[in-house]
Amino acid sequence: MANRIRAAKEKLGERVIVLAHHYQRDDVYDHGDAFGDSLKLSRLARDSKAEFIVFCGVHFMAETADIVTEGERIVTLPDETAGCPMADMAQIHQVEKAWKQLQALLGDTIVPITYINSYASLKAFCGDHGGLVCTSTNAPKALEYGFKQKEKIFFFPDQHLGRNTAVNQGIPLEQIVLYNPFLPNGGLTKEQLENSKVILWSGCCPVHNRFKVEDIVEARRLDPAIKVLVHPEVPYAVAQATDFMGSTEFIISTLAAAPPGSSWLVATEIHLVGRLIKQHPDKKIQLLGSPICMCSMMDRTSPEHLCQNLEALVKGDIVNQIIVDPEIRVRAAVALERMLAL
User: Fold this and answer.
1) Rg (CA), the chain
2) pTM (2 decimals)?
3) Which among 184, 201, 218 is the end of a domain?
4) Closest Cα partner for 188 from 106, 94, 88, 96?
5) Which residues pair with 200 in a beta bridge?
6) Would you call 182 helix, strand, or coil by DSSP?
7) pLDDT tens digit string along 254-264?
C-alpha cells in the first residue's frame, strides 16, 4: 500500500500536495508533504500552488482549505466520513436561535468568535456579524480583537478553549458564563448575561475532555520533577494544574527545546504523543492518564483511503471532493481572513 501511494504521488508530481494533521496515524502521516495544526494547515492550503490538495484530517479542515483557496483548488478528503464531534455540537440553526435570544436581551453588544473546529456555515455567521475564526494558537489575539469591537464575546463551540483563554486574558470566572442551547436563554438569567464578558457555548472536544486532575497529582507523586504540558481544549481544572499550556505546535516546539533527561506529562491526542515519544528518546515523555485519548475521527483515514484517493486523481477521477457552497464560502472567508490577518 505504501508503495502504491508513493507511486501515485510520483505520477502526480507537483500537481498534488498531501496535507497531514498531527493527529493522523503514522502510516498516513508518513506520506504527508506538509504537516501542522489547524492554523498552519490553513496557511499551507492558502499558499499552495498545487492543483489538488489531499487533506488528511477531518471535514471542517478540508472545508477551510476550500474556503481559503476560494474554490480555485480541488480539495479532497481521503475518508469523507471523518468528521468532528465538537463541530457537531454547534449547528447553524442552534447558533442563529441563540444569537436572536442574546440580541433581544443584550442588544448590539456582542461579537461572535468560532473555533476553527466548526462548520463553514458558522464561520460565515461570524463573517456576517463582525466576528472571526480562531485556533488554539491565536485564540488570545482573537479575544483581543473581539473586545475592541464590542463589550461581550459569544464563543463557540469549545467551552474549554474559550474559558482557559479568557481566564489567561485576565477575565474573572464570574464574568464567564456557559450557554446551553437546549434551555431557554441558554439556562442563564438576564442578570448573568448582563454581567458577563464571555458567553461560552456548551461544547467540547471528547478527546481532551477526558483528562483529569487526579492523574496529574499521581504522576507528580511518582516523579516530582515531571512537567505537565497540555492543550487548551482540556477542562479548566486540568489547565489550572499544569505547568505549560498551548496549541499543538506549541507542544511540539516545547518538547523539542526541552533538555535531555527531562520528564514530561502531555495531555493531547495519542497519535501525536506517540510520535513525540519516538522523536525524543532522550526525554521521558508520557501521555497523561489512561491511553484512551484517541481521536477516532482522525484515525478513520487509512493508507487504503489515501491510496484510493491518489490513484483516482492519477486516472483523472475526483473522489471525495469537499466543496463549500460559493455563497457560504465568500462569507466564511471574511471571518477566516480576519483570523489570518492576526
Assistant:
1) 20
2) 0.93
3) 201
4) 106
5) 155, 178
6) coil
7) 999 999 999 99
